[in-house]
Amino acid sequence: MKVGLHLGLGQHLTMTPQLQQAIKLLQLSTLELQQEVQSALDSNPLLELDDGSEPAGMSSEPHDSTPEAPDKAGETLDLDQRSDMPDQLPVDTAWDDIYVGSGSGTGGEPVDEDGDPIETRNAQAESLQDHLRWQLNLTPFNDTDRLVAEAVIDGLDSRGYLTVSLQELADTVQHWIDEVPEEDEILAVLHRVQQFDPPGVAARDLCECLLIQLGQRPAGTEGLAGAQCLLRDHADKLAAGDLPGLMRATRLSEAEIQQVMALIRQLKPHPGEGWAGPDDEKTLIPDVVVRKHNGRWRVELNPEAAPRLRVNSGYAAMLRRADSSRDNQFIRDHLQEARWLIKSLQSRHETLLKVATCIVEHQRGFLEEGPEAMKPLILRDVADEVGLHESTISRVTTQKYLHTPRGLFELKYFFSSHVGTSSGGEASSTAIRAMIKKLVAQENPRKPLSDNKIADLLQEQGIEVARRTIAKYRESLNIPSSSDRKRLL
């Protein structure tokens, strides 16, 4: 094979480390941003939180009385004018290729004084399985029964229901010990686990879940016997809302049926709710706050969600008097890294505020009147108005939340497609969903509105929506069909 040199033209996308960092910060949620900023504060001694107070600075008097040291404490340096610190790094380079981080972890993450990653110090929310295992450790079991109970706990889904059969539990235990437990023994262990907190956990179906919760109610509870009878022997009629059939089968009056139904509605169909994983337990912090002041809507960043950093002037002043080139290089590297992070954060704040302001301008009707006044809005509309790309708008609005007088909403909530009206205008799909929800809430439970009837009612308001569109919107709102919504009064 002959070796040769060939010249060719081509195009490829390249990004500087600064642009990569800016994009990364832009798409982070509030909690992720706080973790990123805290990690930077732990690893970079030249960064500090800007709380609005005067920088404390370090004593400018050097220990060896070097004449070149500055005379004033906390002397401000013109950091942006240093010729040895470039404004941009070459494209397709990495931070670690240019600057050495201060973290000592194997992956570059900051570590504590014991050498453990700082992230491992964050406490995690307790899961449902952890809560049940804690109770299991306090309950007397022999070795075989404990293994069965472990298998039961591992077989629960996020709702708290047991998703494996008794035979599958026996097969699981057989992998751990040679002895195969009997079905009666497995069932006995299951019943003991079903007495754990939360009530109704480890049930195999909805009726069993509700019966377990009823079994833990005081014996004198009104309607307890009737509720257990309905769930155990007449669940099909109960699900269908067959009031006359229930009255004939149980010989209970309508008032007694109402009392039983009120008791059943107090039960929790999904006992696993509230015990989700740590990711589902994160507290939502608004990134932007909108409030009305003097008749005008004002949009501002949430100070708690918009961390502000500054360069520690005391450490920066040491750059002029470093005793060795190694110290000098260490400070210079972290100073440039701090500058770029501050600029990226400032760019993120400005972009987020600009996009949120544009959204609020378009959706003033929602703030004044509610979801029914929502206007159609797509990413392109905001992108054209603020002069950014649609992909940037998508990053800005993902996992970013706006606090309004009507509640906390993700910025993506304010984007929706449009549906034509009889007058030639457009209606937001979000507004139509709100109208459907309002109509269903006001309907007669004995005669629920069908999808065709809802379409006719919206037609009277000038909104032309097909029946199948109504069905799609209704299902997205988790509203059952008219036949399933018919319930006992």
From TrEMBL:
One GO CC term on file: DNA-directed RNA polymerase complex
One Gene Ontology biological process: DNA-templated transcription initiation
Highest taxon of the lineage: Bacteria
PROSITE patterns attached to this UniProt entry: SIGMA54_1, SIGMA54_2, SIGMA54_3
Keyword line: DNA-binding, DNA-directed RNA polymerase, Nucleotidyltransferase, Sigma factor, Transcription, Transcription regulation, Transferase
Spans annotated as Disordered: 45-86
InterPro entries assigned: RNA_pol_sigma_54, RNA_pol_sigma_54_core-bd, RNA_pol_sigma_54_DNA-bd, RpoN_core-bd_sf
All copies of domain RNA polymerase sigma factor 54 DNA-binding, residue ranges: 329-487
Gene Ontology molecular-function annotations: DNA binding; DNA-binding transcription activator activity; nucleotidyltransferase activity; sigma factor activity
Compositional bias ranges of the Basic and acidic residues kind: 61-85
Pfam families noted in UniProt: Sigma54_AID, Sigma54_CBD, Sigma54_DBD
Domain RNA polymerase sigma factor 54 core-binding: 118-315
Job of this protein: Sigma factors are initiation factors that promote the attachment of RNA polymerase to specific initiation sites and are then released.
Entry similarity comment: Belongs to the sigma-54 factor family.
Protein name: RNA polymerase sigma-54 factor
Gene source species: Amnimonas aquatica
